[in-house]
Design brief:
The complex is a heterodimer. By secondary structure, chain A is an alpha/beta fold. Chain A has one domain: Transcription Regulator spoIIAA (2-Layer Sandwich). Chain A is 51% helix and 16% strand. Chain A contains five helices and five strands, in the order E-E-H-E-H-E-H-E-H-H. In chain A, helix 1 runs parallel beside helix 2. Chain A is globular and about 50 Å long. The mean pLDDT of chain A is 90. By secondary structure, chain B is an alpha+beta fold. Chain B has a single domain, classed as 2-Layer Sandwich (Heat Shock Protein 90). In chain B, 35% of the residues lie in helices and 28% in strands. In chain B, helix 2 packs antiparallel against helix 4. The chains are: A alpha/beta, B alpha+beta. Chains A and B meet through helix 2 and helix 3 of A and helix 1, helix 2 and helix 4 of B. Chain B: It comes from Micromonospora parva. Chain B: It holds the Pfam family HATPase_c. Chain B: This is Anti-sigma regulatory factor.
Chain lengths: 136, 139
């Protein structure tokens, strides 16, 4: 069985799917990614599907599952590089890709993750009790 | 890949494993490209073939796929037959409903792939298994 490589770039894990995956390879990728997110503490996952000439319901479900798993592990997933014909086919197939953020290319995907992470940090800072207002 | 294909002959591929589903996709793509289907139509047909070949494997317990170039006098097209000798589909109407699955899938394989092709025929029985024929015509 072939395996899809996972690259770490700064705070992001980059997966560029370059082969016609068997279902087993897709499931393996799900597991490998979960492990790498925990091992590296990365806050973002970019899945580049530029080279995929189809996304069927199995791969679609894999993308949704990866997004859900990484969310639980405190990482944001962005799927980038979907071909127009793939997008048209996905919609007609009836696949909604629930919970998946998309961007047109890797660069925009990285911006999206950086923005999401910054927002989260702001939120956490706002959440901390203010010493001055806490005392009556 | 495309070079070795004789379009005058039906192309057969057995479906016994995950890797065979990948081979079905590659075969259908090669025939669709050679038959000059548009890029969107190629994508739709290969996606439908992937769904149906997976069904042949998962629900039919394996089987075979045959891809043929067809001509109705006005247009060329690609016809694919998926055959298995599995248990058949007990309730066809239910099986064709979006979101229904008897396995662990999304329930889009049958209903979704019917939307992706121009013609869709299904024959199924507990004795003979399931045989699905789909056709996509060039525009």
């Amino acid at each position: 069985m072939e395996r899809v490589p996972i690259l770490k770039i700064g705070d992001i894990l980059l997966v560029s799917i370059q082969l016609d995956m068997s279902d087993q390879t897709a499931v393996q990728l799900q597991e490998d990614l979960a492990e790498r997110i925990v091992a590296t503490g990365c806050h973002g996952v970019i899945i580049d599907i530029t080279a995929l000439d189809i996304v069927d319901s199995f791969v679609g479900r894999m993308l949704s599952t990866i997004a859900s798993i990484s969310k639980v592990l405190d990482a944001e997933t962005v799927v980038v590089g979907m071909r127009p014909a793939v997008a048209i086919t996905l919609v007609e197939l009836g696949l909604s890709l629930n919970g998946i953020r998309t961007a047109l290319n890797v660069e925009r995907g990285m911006e999206l993750i950086a923005a999401a992470h910054a927002e989260e940090l702001d939120y956490q800072l706002d959440d901390e009790p203010d010493a001055e207002t806490a005392t009556p | 890949m495309t070079a070795g294909i004789d379009l005058g002959q039906p192309q057969a591929q057995s479906v016994r494993s995950d890797e065979d589903v990948v081979r079905v996709r590659q075969l259908v793509r090669a025939v669709a490209v050679a038959s000059k289907l548009s890029l969107v139509d190629q994508t739709k047909l290969v996606t439908a073939a992937s769904e149906l070949a997976r069904n042949t494997l998962v629900y039919g317990g394996g089987g075979s796929v045959e891809v043929t170039v067809v001509d109705n006098g006005r247009r060329k097209g690609v016809q694919i037959v998926f055959a298995d000798s599995g248990p058949g589909i007990a309730d066809l109407d239910l099986a064709m409903t979006d979101g229904y699955t008897s396995g662990g899938g999304l329930g889009l394989g049958l209903s979704g792939s019917r939307r992706l092709v121009d013609e869709f025929q299904i024959e199924t029985s507990a004795e003979t298994g399931t045989r699905i024929t789909v056709t996509k015509w060039s525009r």
